[in-house]
Amino acid sequence: MLPSGPPNRSPIVPLAVEIDNVTRRFGRVQALAGVSLAVEEGEFFGLLGPNGAGKTTLISVLAGLTRADTGTARVLGHDVSTDYRKSRRALGVVPQELVFDPFFSVRETLEIQSGYFGIRNNGAWIDEILHHLDLTSKSRANMRSLSGGMKRRVLVGQALVHKPPVIVLDEPTAGVDVELRQSLWAFIRKLNRDGHTIILTTHYLEEAEALCGRIAMLKAGRVVALDTTKNLLARVAGLTVRLAADRVPAAWQSRVQSRDAHVFVLGLDEYADLESLLAALREEGIRIDELALQETDLEQVFLRIMGAGRPRSAESAP
Amino acid sequence: MIRFTGAGWLTLLYKELLRFWKVAFQTILAPVITSLLYLLIFSHVLEARVSVFGGEVAYTAFLVPGLVMMSVLQNAFANSSSSMIQSKITGNLIFILLPPLSPADFFAAYVLGAMIRGLVVGLGVFLVTLFFVPSLLAMPHPFWALAFALLGSAILGTLGLVGGLWAEKFDQLAAFQNFLITPLTFLSGVFYSIHSLPPFWQALSHANPFFYMIDGFRYGFFGLSDAPPALSLAIVSACAIVLSLATLLLLRRGWKLRL
């Protein structure tokens, strides 16, 4: 089975990531049920899904932390099992769990991580990483003394020490405050502009919408949507109106997407429909208590595809 | 441009050494003091009462190589086992699972790190006890002693790695240490010559590989031993090879490391 890759890709350029029909079962739980997808070099790719959808298992298979029952995974054409040395050199992973080695300082942590990849004299790049992650002043501090957000940034630094062409960020901004999150994204965007492929999972759908060119949505170990962010957004009616009133005009009953007491959400095809709605309200003498126009966002797409409640984020709040 | 040298295992070894060096008070000095206390108490109580090697060797002198080797073995085990289980429980094991380290890289770094810790502590115990038995410096077969110290620390370093991989929590590792490693070490002739035991326990001691490590090591100091040193070397070498191959196989399968 061929992976579902991005459109119009050159057959000569190797894909950054190829996952072909990967399955993985843990006891009774089918964590991955035949996942196939492909990410082209230089993409900023989002991997979304609710808890237990299989995102972290998929990343673990890619990183060699978990072995697939069937199927194959490749990083820049290197199989993660049979050619693991090259595939791991090509991959940097920021793990979801906030882990650290309490014996070492920030700088020692980064130097040791460099060394694991067989890299010597990496001081200049480590300095740059520390600078971009706003950790220069903490470079001699023991890992135990850092705040959660700082530890998270060191994890990002550890994933970057070997300048991997493909970077996987598994919930990298959890616990990081807004200001630092912005600087972190600026750095990741710069890496992406410099040619690094970024694969992101995040709780914050607005981040995925703003950053990712393409998105795969996973549910129960399967890919349930895989498209450009633009196309995904276009799947759901482009505009909605939130109207607080006693009732909606008779001709607009079919446009009601949801209702909560006297608050209706109506779908619009285009901005011009708003005039028709206002005219209909005037004609039927319906008093408007409140009216707000909303553009479709990724959250609505996500909820529509997942067919579930209405949380503010992709997963239960951290 | 980043250049990969492929020698990541050297950094893992460096990390293992730095790890115990940063807490040297606990990992080096404490076991040296413990061994010194053993020497002071046992030699004071037993020097005039126990005869070893037909009275050719004083009990205190007999005891020192046993204590040195016991320190080597216990600390080699402690290093690899505690490092592995701490990394597993705190989750930072991921930092060495993500890089391109092979099963042999893992094995070499953990076992060498354990050997070095064991040998450093053993050397410390030897140097301190020389103050009490300076004649031990004139050992007749130092290379035999060195060979058994290297092989013994390698075996215990490997057992520590296996124990650390197997255990899911500190409790389980403590059981591995308390019910397997410590009895085998204490019942291996550290404090006595097995010729002083009843026949049944003598025979049983011959089934304990730790006995050959201690006895062979002691041969290096006195030129005397309970078992032929060549036999001890063969048994200890065979144990080291079989255990190493089995551990490499476990690492290759990703046992308890890669789900």
Structure report:
The complex is a heterodimer of chains A (318) and B (259). Chain A has 318 residues and is α/β, with parallel strands linked by helices. Chain A has two domains: 17-233, P-loop containing nucleotide triphosphate hydrolases (Rossmann fold, 3-Layer(aba) Sandwich), CATH 3.40.50.300; 237-295, no CATH class. Chain A has ten helices and 14 strands. In chain A, the strands form three sheets. In chain A, strands 6-7-8-3-9-10 form a six-stranded mixed sheet, sandwiched between helices. Chain A has a four-stranded antiparallel sheet with strand order 2-1-4-5. In chain A, strands 12-13-11-14 form a four-stranded antiparallel sheet, with no helix packed on it. The longest helix of chain A has 16 residues, at 178-193. The radius of gyration of chain A is 23 Å and the shape is elongated. Chain B has 259 residues and is an all-alpha fold. Chain B has one domain (56-253). The longest helix of chain B has 32 residues, at 59-90. The model of chain B has no long low-confidence stretch (mean pLDDT 91). Chain A binds chain B through residues 26, 60, 63-67, 84-86, 88-89, 91, 93, 95, 97, 99-104, 108, 112-120, 122, 125, 158, 162-163, and chain B through 2-8, 10-12, 14-15, 18-19, 22-23, 87, 90-92, 94-102, 254, 258-259.
Set out the fold topology.
The complex is a heterodimer of chains A (about 325) and B (about 260).
Chain A: E1 17-26, E2 29-39, E3 44-48, H1 55-63, E4 70-75, E5 78-79, H2 84-89, E6 91-94, H3 106-116, H4 123-132, H5 148-160, E7 166-170, H6 178-193, E8 197-201, H7 205-211, E9 214-219, E10 222-228, H8 229-235, E11 239-244, E12 256-260, E13 263-268, H9 273-283, E14 290-295, H10 298-306
Parallel strand pairs in A: 3-8, 3-9, 6-7, 7-8
Antiparallel strand pairs in A: 1-2, 1-4, 4-5, 9-10, 11-13, 11-14, 12-13
Helix pairs in contact in A: 3-5
Chain B: H1 8-21, H2 24-46, H3 59-90, H4 94-97, H5 103-130, H6 142-166, H7 170-186, H8 199-205, H9 209-222, H10 229-253
Helix pairs in contact in B: 1-5, 2-3, 2-5, 3-5, 3-6, 3-7, 3-9, 5-6, 5-10, 6-9, 6-10, 9-10
